[in-house]
Amino acid sequence: MMAPSVVAKRGVTPVREPFPARLRSDDLALAFSHRAAYATLTSRGDDASGLCRRRPFGVVIELDASDFAKVAEREVGYRIAEVVVERLGVDGDHDARCVSAEAFVSTWGMELIDGPLPPTARYRGLILDGLERYGIRAYEAEGGAAYVEWVRSLPTVEDGGIARDPAYSKTGVELATRVGFGVAALAAAAAAFAGGSIR
What we know:
- By secondary structure, the protein is of the alpha+beta class.
- Helices cover 36% and strands 21% of the residues.
- The protein is built from 7 helices and 7 strands, in the order αβββββαβαβαααα.
């Protein structure tokens, strides 16, 4: 939600000017592994595909409780996790730079089984829009320019490509549902074969 256009579309008004930040922990990475290759934070290990990045950059947007509830209602398949981020461009000690924030992180059931996968060109464009709007490239010492180039170099697919590729919807929920239907079908077949019935 770094793109101002996306924040505006949610119908919310930040309490104060959003500010750029970087995830403090090395234990979490940004990955395009939410259903339909949307971004999420994950604790999975490094990924050879190049579709994960440790200590990603982002924007902290302070909202009042009702606006936060509006955003949370639209973020399907995510849970809210507390993270610590480091403000960019702020001098001073650890307490001045570090802020606790709430981030939307995929629930297990919505992470792609075969992920991460390339995002859509449109989605990558929205992320780049936010990176440019908040001047992430200027934070050279923190790796901002390299991060922008990483996003720019991400492989992408067209929106229609996601609809045609089942890997983009194969999540824990989808897998569990298939297994459930498969078990029910086997039980029904066994009952029919034995001359019984399922009630």
